[in-house]
Amino acid sequence: MNKVSRRGFLLGTGAVVGVAGGKYLAPSNPSLDGVSVHLAKTGETLLNDASGLSATPVHKHIMLREDLGESLIAKVRAEMVEAKSAGRAINVGAARHSMGAQAIPRDGHAITFDNGFVDADLGAGTYKVHGGARWSQIIAALDPVGWSPKVMQSNNDFGVASTFCVNAHGWPVPHGPMGATVRSFDMVVEDGAVVTCSRTQNAELFNLTMGGYGLTGVIVSMEVEMEPNLRLEPNFAQMEAVQFGPAFEAALADPDVNMAYGRLNVDRGRFFEEALLITYRPTADQSDLPAAAGSGVMSKLARHIYRAQLGNERMKRTRWWTETGLGPMLGSGATTRNTLINEPVVTLDDRDPNRTDILHEYFVAPSRFEAFLDVCRAVIPNSYQEFLNVTLRFVNTDAESYLSYAPVPRIAAVMSFSQEMTARAEADMARMTRDLIDGITGIGGTYYLPYRPHPTQAQFERAYPRAAEFAAAKRSFDPSLTFRNNLWDQYLGTL
User: Fold this and answer.
1) What is the pTM of this model?
2) Cα(448)–Cα(442) distance, rounded to whole angstroms?
3) Which end of the chain is more exposed for a tag (fewer CB within 10 A), N or C?
4) What are residue 242's phi and psi, to 5 degrees?
5) What are the chain's domains?
6) For the segment 167-181, what is each residue's pLDDT rounded down to a tens digit?
7) Rounded distance, CA 127 to CA 301, Å?
8) Cα distance between residue 100 and residue 104, in whole Å
9) With left for phi above 0 and alpha for psi between -120 and 50, is residue 48 left, alpha or beta?
10) Which residues touch 230 (CB under 8 Å, ≥6 apart)?
11) Quick one: angle between helices 297-308 and 313-321, nearest 10?
């Protein structure tokens, strides 16, 4: 086994989706106050998220670490009763890695779940998990028994229920979003009852909650599908960017491909003109798999290359060379599936208090990928933003969730920008975002909802045509509007 993690090398050059811009603090860190600040003068508690730009007053912020059972449910109910009696909102989060207060209830009760309970059922191929368990804890529990999460976010810091509620995807293929792997969940709803939801039991509430951003209730436990851990070997294919859509579809037609993602060059001289496709297939030898590793030496070294791109076109070209040339040479050995996905956000932390890393994500059909490239070339270089990375993934059809971003199979383009924390930079980011959304929805694509709330109301409704239906269904299940957040307040509450 090669001791250098393949993802470890490539991660430092931008493989992950979860960059926190120096503003992220995992709630499992004992210093919980790092994400909420109490202002003695005003008596306010401010809660922020990964952007560092979403400081929002909340009535209070509490951590719940109770095990599954009546104690946890009683504490959730108590917060709900208090919030409802005062007409305040409630919302439950985990890592709060959203970037526009989508997991923060303004002037309400913010609860952070943090409990690592995981119980694998090897016969059923599923695991039962606390809603607040982090993916790192799930991998730690499944890896010793030879299993792996079927789909998870690309970083291991986040909570499993939060992943379901934003319906995040990963880079295992050929799957849909993580919600496609959830068998059932137990949730405390608006009247305090605990209901079980699945595709056959309370199915409408199941679909509403998948990608529903915590607006339907408090998930306390889940049953989720897993699959065997595997030893995988990568293959690297460099090509012109216009060839990527067909090449990705061809790779996905190979049943041996277990994981896959792509990259585009980002230097302004050849912006979005070259692509790299990385696919992983099982090796012949699947015996004696090593324990899942995390960030290796190469990840930490490669972080410096990633960060050195800031304002440096030459370094962006150097980074592309490391990905297309040096990366395949050093990262061609086998690794395990669990090692590939066992990576924390903090690996790419920028540690600069004057800048923040802002993510965008767009979804386009593979057949429209060339048109997507044209839109990006016309918009992004005309902004003042520092563009650091784009990772390309596949998301299969999601015909279940109300706020689906993949009504047909789509390529997901996860973009990372480094933004100054100034009003000028924020205005420029908003302008660029709206221009991108206009172009991408114009070719039948959409954008992802957990990031900065820059889209207009009209853009939101065009990208998510079932939004009004979602709002009406939410009101039927939550007539007191107990579960609210910034996504509801800004976009859905008026529908």
Assistant:
1) 0.90
2) 16
3) N
4) -65, -15
5) 6-18+229-460 (3.30.70.2520)
6) 999 989 999 999 999
7) 35
8) 9
9) beta
10) 148, 258, 282, 286, 289, 336, 337
11) 150
